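Below is how a single chain appears once it has passed through the pipeline. First comes the sequence as given, then the structure the pipeline wrote out for it. We keep one example in the README because the format questions we get most often are answered faster by looking than by reading.
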Amino acid sequence: MALRQCQVCKEAQYKYKCPSCLLLYCSSACFKRHKGNPCQKSLTPQEETISMVLPERTFEVDETNWILGSDQLQLIAQSKGIRDALNDVELQKLVYKIDSCSNPEEELDKAMEREGFPQFTEMILSSVSPKIKPSR
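Resulting structure:
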């Protein structure tokens, strides 16, 4: 069975995986041989999808009640609907564009005119303030 074969010596069945690149190997000797050549960390599918670097900038908020607390952020993170929606690559790109542009408020207004984005924002608002219905 070639599928279970050590990817270093190509002789024995593998027993281990390199923690960085997930290469399959059978022994410490093969691991040492593999580490003789630098390997790169394997990306998860989500890391491959989102390979964007977020901009570094400070945020200023005039109204402190607009700042979400850790409990509200946790509610967003735990929402299956929000997580499912964020699997959409186009939505990821749109959120990134809003976050990284010089005028995010203007970009947010444009996004609200796109199909599906208002529903996404309603999901977020209803998860952090379930008693308050978002205005249209």
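Helices lie at 28-35, 45-49, 70-78, 80-85, 89-100, 104-112, 117-128.

See the next section for the split statistics.
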